[in-house]
Amino acid sequence: MTRTIWIGIFVFLLLLIDFYVFNAIKQLIRQQSDWNQKFITVLYWSVPVISLLVFFSAFFWFNERLSFKYRNFMASFVFIIYISKLFAAVILLFGDILKLGKILLNKIYQLFLTESTGSPNSGNGNTINRSEFIAKTALAVGGLHIGAMGWGIISGAHDYRIRKVKLALNNLPSEFDGLKLIQISDIHSGSFFNKTAVKGGVEMLMAENPDMVFFTGDLVNNNAEEFKEYFNIFNKIKAPLGVYSTLGNHDYGDYAKWESEQQKIQNIKDLMEAHRLMGWNLLMDENKAITIGNQKIGILGIQNWGVGFAQYGSLEKALKNTHEFDTKLLLSHDPSHWRAQVLQQTDIDASFAGHTHGMQYGVEIGDFKWSPAQFRYKEWAGLYQENDQQLYVNRGYGFLGYPGRLGILPEITVFELGKKNT
Predict the structure, then answer these.
(1) Which of 397, 69, 368 has its CA nearest to residue 234?
(2) Residue ranges of E strands in 170-234
(3) What are the tens digits of pLDDT across the range 52-81?
């Protein structure tokens, strides 16, 4: 199919949702005056018209003239409106299914019962009330969801949370027992809109006095230029045993248009240079020994490797000459890499990933967590373990797409390393 046909299908589906929700609104305003009904109708339809104009303006007509950040905000506006309408439409659909079921039951009664028996439609006056209740519920849910998504932008985007995790490892050398390791991931500097809040998050991180720091990829959305404004914030991240980093799928510039292949190559070189200038040890399919006293562990890092995403990394290269390490810790941006190449295929003790952001949307209450991310990733947030191998998936420091976070908040993970009791 051509691009135009796909766009046509996309617009048709959005308008279908609009018509479905509008029918519920018509039901609720039918007692209003003609003028009020016309006003509400115009007001309702102005939103999808403006939304679609904004969307197509951002991504087709003014694509080259607007920055990624502004195009992202425009797309998010459309996303918030329509995902909220979709919630309302699902409730309306449920109500229509119930109504259809009742009609079918009435038909069955009419087939088997005489008129004198009476129809189950007796007391039919409640049908309208029930329909109105469903319509009001659907619109209320949609409205509340718009409000919640807005709050996720205002409050959730930079609501950094410290998560403390005890990481027990079988063969951890005694000198490393109690070591404090901090992980952040998915900075996506090109999406930030509150520099003060970003700086506050880094200050929170440093206040934890880490012995070592891991950054597991996606410093930018596409372009190394994005990071210039935030370089003097993130270069404050230091640790006695070093800061170790790797690349994520967005760091390669694969999602941007470049004038030439040389320009794209220079972009990744500039990004790698930013890591070096900050004093971060960028691990490109390699490993480093960390020594305390006469004991050491191995830190491994590979370039991005993900199922369904670019696979630049070579775990084989990163594992070279690591036989001397009793404990091996791996930085690998995409959590799908763990199950594909690490688990039960290597002697890596713990892997550290990011990438999913927990979709920046979900619910976390105590030990319960839910997000649409789990339909794509088996491991999407938090600590996972199979046999003696572990994976931690960081929820991300920044955001991409939706410029906020609802339920799944930005994360600074503080690990305390310890030896597992055997």
Answers:
(1) 397
(2) 180-184, 212-216
(3) 777 776 666 555 555 666 667 777 778 888
